[in-house]
Amino acid sequence: MTTYRPDQPPVPRRMAHRPVERGYAVPWFCAEIDGHYDFRVVGPGKVRAAITQRLCWLCGQPLGAFKAFCIGPMCAINRTIGDPPSHRECAEWAIRACPFLNQRETKRRTTGMPEGATPPAGYGIMRQPGATCLWVTKSYAVTKAPGGVLFDIGDPVEVAWYCQGRPASRSEVMESITTGYPILLEMAEQEGPAAVTELERLRDRALTLLPSA
């Protein structure tokens, strides 16, 4: 298929040059394997290129002053993510177009992974969160983590929440936080009381960024 699926949102101008696979515009980071793109696998050298050349993770073109991250509610709490930033319009398109980010797929597809594919850096939460955050910032820091690097995202200049490709309600985001927070809490409890106290502070900070209704 060389045309977009009819259920896809309009493709941003910066993504228009990207190849099309199964009706989806192929993000720049995707690996090409045996003549086809695997949307689950990051191509070799893409993370380093995105960082050093300041390229959008989705379209591959240079970023400007603003950097957008597609994150789940737990990442909005700890402000850490495994993927480099994108242009705002590219990130919003991904949230609406990606079957996992827009909740059409309830689980990450892990079967049939190509040989040599490596898991994401750090300790990822693999569940379907049910809500996605578009986090726009002017800053981020790169830190080493098991299996690669993580991105510590800076204070937001804009936050928008989505569920099923549309603006999310406060109750939808709260449901995701309520069901996901115990995972972070268990990790913190293993580190001790100070870590739990810090996690509670981060959670309360994140709650101020939720939709008003």
Notable characteristics:
5 helices, 3-stranded antiparallel β-sheet, 28% helix, globular, alpha+beta, single chain, 4-stranded antiparallel β-sheet, 213 residues
The radius of gyration is 17 Å
Distance between the termini: 40 Å
Helix content: 25-40%
The tally of beta strands, per DSSP, is: 11
Helix/strand layout:
Layout: E1 20-21, E2 24-25, E3 30-33, E4 36-42, H1 46-52, E5 67-71, H2 73-78, E6 80-81, H3 88-97, E7 132-137, E8 140-145, E9 148-153, E10 156-163, E11 166-167, H4 170-191, H5 193-207
Antiparallel strand pairs: 1-2, 3-4, 5-7, 6-9, 7-10, 8-9, 10-11
Helix pairs in contact: 4-5
Overview of the structural elements:
It is a single chain. By secondary structure, the protein is α+β, with helices and mostly antiparallel strands. It has a domain at 63-207. It is built from 5 helices and 11 strands. The strands form 4 sheets. Strands 5-7-10-11 form a 4-stranded antiparallel beta sheet. Strands 6-9-8 form a 3-stranded antiparallel beta sheet. A two-stranded antiparallel ribbon has the order 1-2. β10 and β11 form a beta hairpin. α4 packs antiparallel against α5 (193-207). 31% of the residues are buried. The model has no long low-confidence stretch (mean pLDDT 92).
Concise summary:
The strands form 4 sheets. A 4-stranded antiparallel β-sheet has the order 5-7-10-11. It has a 3-stranded antiparallel β-sheet with strand order 6-9-8. A two-stranded antiparallel sheet has the order 1-2. The protein has helices at residues 46-52, 73-78, 88-97, 170-191, 193-207; strands spanning 20-21, 24-25, 30-33, 36-42, 67-71, 80-81, 132-137, 140-145, 148-153, 156-163, 166-167.
